[in-house]
Amino acid sequence: MKYYDMHEDVYKQLAAKDKISWDGQTDPKELFNHEINQAIGEKLPEFFNSYEGLCAVDLGTGTGTCALNLAKLGFKVRGFDLSETAIGLAKENAKALGVEASFEVSDITKIVTTDKVDLVVDSSLLHCLVYKEDRNNFFRVAHDLLKDEGLLFLHTMIEAKDMSEMLDRDYLVYEDHILYSTGPDRWEMDWQEVQGKRVFPHRWITTIDLLTEEVRRAGFKIVHSKLEPQERSTGTLCAWLKKI
Ligand SMILES: C[S@@+](CC[C@H](N)C(=O)[O-])C[C@H]1O[C@@H](n2cnc3c(N)ncnc32)[C@H](O)[C@@H]1O
Hints:
- The chain has one domain: 3-Layer(aba) Sandwich (Rossmann fold).
- 31% of the residues lie in helices and 29% in strands.
- It is built from seven helices and eleven strands.
- It is globular.
- It starts with 5 loop residues before the first helix and ends with a strand.
- The model has no long low-confidence stretch (mean pLDDT 95).
- S-adenosylmethionine binds next to strand 2.
């Protein structure tokens, strides 16, 4: 099991409790109010005059949180996620909401891209990719997918000066920008030992400087960003990128 395959197991547990999203919501209508959709909605009208006929891809769509909101706005949307359970829930959420979008099970680091789109959304997937090779693949896929004038939106975790609140949780370990988790024993992970605990890599926590350099190397520039800091835990960065 690769480190990011754990998401499938989490979705199975959520589905068993009648939850319809990663954040544990129970009513599909609540998906539209998700903070990612609010962040996208704040800036999107400044980039596009109208959404009719535009195409978008949601990478790490989960149960369709962003994809369904973009489809409601008028985009033709494809959502990709590696979790079969999540994609099943995304299709059910689409039906329940009467919104059309296409959903596919796929490992983003291995997507072979076809049609070019106007908007690519990272709906909290990028911070799930810890290793350089996987992150490079994410940016390669996003770059290949986008039209020259297209936009890439990132919603990603940012390191805080003080991470004490997050690290109070005894199942987490933080070292060199990697947030490790102890996870349940049943996961057949490539377990590592960090700070005396048996862990697997869970999230990549970036800084603005690291991300700026990473996107530049990948052929992008940040055209707008907004940081939602937290006192003693990771903050969230919403960033809009264009191809250089
Ligand atoms: C933090 S969850 C966010 C889910 C959803 N976008 C939302 O906002 O509710 C991250 C998502 O990324 C997906 N994911 C992680 N690694 C992936 C990969 N390599 N390829 C495709 N999806 C991946 C997970 O299955 C999970 O659905």
